[in-house]
Amino acid sequence: MGKHSKSYSDVKSQVDRSRDYSPAEAVALVQQLKRAKFDESVEIHVRTGLNVRHADEQLRGTIALPHGLGKEVTIAVFAQGPKAAEAEAAGADIVGADDLAKRVEEGFTDFDVAIATPDMMPLVGRLGRVLGPSGKMPNPKVGTVTMDVAKAVEEAKAGKVEYRTDRTAIVHLVIGKTSFPAEHLLENYAAVIDELVRAKPSAAKGKYLKTITMASTMGPGVKVDATRTRDILGEAAPTAA
Fold it and tell me: Which UniProt keywords apply (predicted)?
């Protein structure tokens, strides 16, 4: 395992690894410790107590972040005829049918979200080996297989993001940029936690939210108190004072 740079080690030393920070404190610290010259993303990594090998303990859904992601979202839509025109009018970046499928088969994945009309799914289904691993496969459960392509495109452009547990039961999500006002990051964080608590599978046993880590793209991880799931926004005022 390679050594970290001196600048990273210096920044990491400012994080107390023995404590769990409040959400507001974590946001402030992550912003303070950003290192890159570019506008870093702020990520959270939530380790759940779910047994993802059981179908009834899978966690997957979408959430519209109150303040978006702070980046331009590139959207590909599999549609034809009037629905293709509808997608283009709504702001989709790439629209196609067989031609788009062929590009994806050849390895094209330069988009953040893929949306498809139901009649396109026999075609899109064959692209699972390309779209599946990157989490870009359209899915009716999260609203990316729909006849209302205009609404799906508009929501994705506004910052609607998909979340799901990985094989180790961790949910990875970007909640904004380090340049965001602290209260906007905190509101996005609160929205994510509210959604994860709401979506808790009924079959879940034991502790549900085990650990939460917040970090910027190039910065060290900051442990967030996973028990703080209520009145998160109410903590901002005392911290700012």
Answer: Repressor, Ribonucleoprotein, Ribosomal protein, RNA-binding, rRNA-binding, Translation regulation, tRNA-binding
Q: Of all helices (H) and strands (E), which one includes residue 107? A: none
* d(C-alpha 144, C-alpha 66), whole Å: 20
Write down all domains in the chain, each with its CATH number in brackets: 15-69+161-224 (3.30.190.20), 75-158 (3.40.50.790)
Torsion of CA 166, 145, 108, 87, to 10 degrees: -140
Query: Per-residue b/e over 87-107, b at no fewer than 16 CB within 10 Å?
Result: bbebebbbbbbeebbeebeee
- Residue 1 is predicted with a pLDDT of 47
User: What residues contact 238, with CB distance under 8 A and at least 6 apart?
Assistant: 24
Is-contact 51 201, C-beta < 8 A? no
User: Distance between CA 27 and CA 11 in Å, rounded?
Assistant: 15
Distance CA(114)–CA(78), nearest Å, equals 8
Check residue 6 and give its pLDDT: 62
| 14, 33 contact by CB (below 8 A) | yes
Nearby residues of 171 by Cβ (< 8 Å), 6 or more positions away: 45, 46, 48, 59, 163, 164, 165, 196
Backbone angles phi and psi of 190, in degrees to 5 = -60, -40
Q: Which residues contact 107 (CB under 8 A, 6 or more apart)?
A: 130
Helix axes 149-158, 82-90, angle to 10 degrees: 20
Mark the ranges of the chain whose per-residue pLDDT is less than 50: 1, 238-241
Q: What CA–CA distance (Å, rounded) separates 20 from 160?
A: 28
Chain-centroid distance, C-alpha 137: 15
Rounded CA gap, 57 and 53, in Å?
A: 8
